[in-house]
Amino acid sequence: MTVDIDLALSSGAWPFKEAAKLVKRFKRNPPEKGYVLFQTGYGPSGLPHLGTFGEVARTSMVIRAFQEISDIPTKLICFSDDMDGLRKVPPNVPNQELLTAALGKPLTDVPDPFGTHDSFGAHNNARLQAFLDQFGFDYEFLSSTECYRSGRFDATLLKICQRYDKVINVILPTLGEERRKTYSPFLPLCPDTGKVLQVPVHIIDAEKGLISYETEQGRKIETSVTGGNVKCQWKVDWAMRWDALDVDYEMAGKDLDESVKLSSIIRRVLGGQPPEALSYEMFLDDQGHKISKSKGNGISIEEWLAYASPESLSLYMYQSPRKAKRLHFDVIPKAVDEYYTFLGKYQEQEQGDRYKNPVWHIHGGKVGQDEIPISFALLLNLVSAANAEDKATLWGFVAKYAEGANAEKFPALDNLMDYALKYFEDFVKPNKSFRPATDQETIAFKSLLKRLSTFDATENDANVIMTEVYSAGKDAEFENLRDWFKACYEVLLGQSQGPRMGGFIALYGIEETKLLIENALNG
Asked: How would you classify the pairing of strands 283-284 and 325-326?
């Protein structure tokens, strides 16, 4: 390995910090299975959202960082807890009565309300895999139902049965008095109704894994914990999976910190070492509420990609995983522009700084060049001001601003135009609201008109133009020039925020901007 490991580890990038945990874990002895196993978990009780994707993307970044500093092979498992019982009907799916009738059944036994797959679990699993495949993640998908029913978990299920008291005593102190009386780490599947039952369980033969319980109808059942007859309660299930698969790394949301703690204790009870972990903060919707698959209050995977590039999404996932972040449509333009800013810096950086650059982690160290002459935010404002409905109109403005610019020379910008047109149509245009200029603002706009009239129509030096914008605001004696810029956005563009005006005018054109101001002053 020719990589400067110390340089990578000293970069401070969080994926390298996580990878360093695994280097330390296997410093003396490599894993007996021959590879380091990373796992991500997903509950298919609702349509997959970007939080689900984020966990896979972030884990993949840790894998790539580990591969940079270690020769030990790696493997990623994306695990679906699709044997979990359906607890409530998500509001964002059709045929809700179909799901209501199947409440309590494993997700893989719940009918698919979309009518495209064998079950609701299978439908959501397919949606997730399709998106992960689109991003090129290298992973193995595992279904909880298949693992339970195929016997893959049998050895660990027997171990839990044999160490039943130790396992149950980890959980009982965290429960209320009434729940303690009925709690069991095993959830039997009722042979009569097919539902996942939360009922008291009695051990008949711990070594053989034989248990007994009563169904909701009062029928006494004796069965084995193996072969898919039961599934485990959540915290025990997590530890069971770590043991059965020998998981070395799994990150989780901060809301699961207590679950991680208890599952880690159970993993030790079962005789193994819990995986290394990163506790990441939650994604929030536009109201500051936690995003939920069942509520459908976040952005879907498909929605982000309708308005921005996959790389912008990966950047959003990379940044500050330990900070709670709003995940709503208005974060998309910023993510797009930040990605191209980091990309533009990469080729000029030394290796140590490249390890700090998010694009190294987004592209797994294989970073290409992709230049754009204007920002996505500026492009959005151009669409707004020009009332553009097609890319040909936009390229007309860009070609005047950057001589010789075209789709062949800047394919990335050509793609961004598609995104900008759709984003404007769906989010900016419906909310545009122009207002008349105040007396003070009118003085400033007339001053700006006069100043722009001194320029040649081909002037496109953003800094020179910006100086005149500042001066126009000073002519009107604005105490805070931010108020003047806000007036430019609200009066000229019909929106509360906007671009640096010098750059916008340079792109939009001197004559076009003069006409924009004249029309605004004339109401």
From this structure: parallel
CA 494 – CA 176 distance, rounded (Å): 56
Which two three-digit tokens encode residue 416?
A: 């961004």
How far is Cα 359 from Cα 340, in angstroms, rounded to an integer? 9
Give the chain's mean pLDDT: 93
Closest CA to 158 of 278, 64, 62, 244: 244
Q: What is the mean pLDDT of residues 166-183?
A: 94
Mode of pairing for the β-strands spanning 186-188 and 230-232 = antiparallel
**433-523, what's its fold?**
Arc Repressor Mutant, subunit A (1.10.10)
Is the pLDDT assigned to residue 50 strictly greater than 70?
yes
Domain ranges within the chain, ordered by starting residue? 433-523
Residue 46 has pLDDT above 80, yes or no: no
Burial label, 361 (beta-carbon count in 10 A; 0-12, 13-18, 19+): buried
Under the banding of pLDDT at 50, 70 and 90, the label for residue 294 is low
Instruction: Give the pLDDT confidence of 218-242 residue by residue, as tens digits.
Output: 999 999 999 999 999 999 999 999 9
Which of 210, 211, 209, 188 is CA-nearest to residue 199?
Answer: 188
Over 234-267, what HEC string results?
A: HHHHHHHHHHHHCCCECCEEHHHHHHHHHHHHHH
Alpha-carbon span 418 to 400, nearest angstrom: 20
What does the block give as tokens for 374? 């204007």
Residue 253 in tokens: 């949301």
Give the DSSP H or E segment for 10.
none
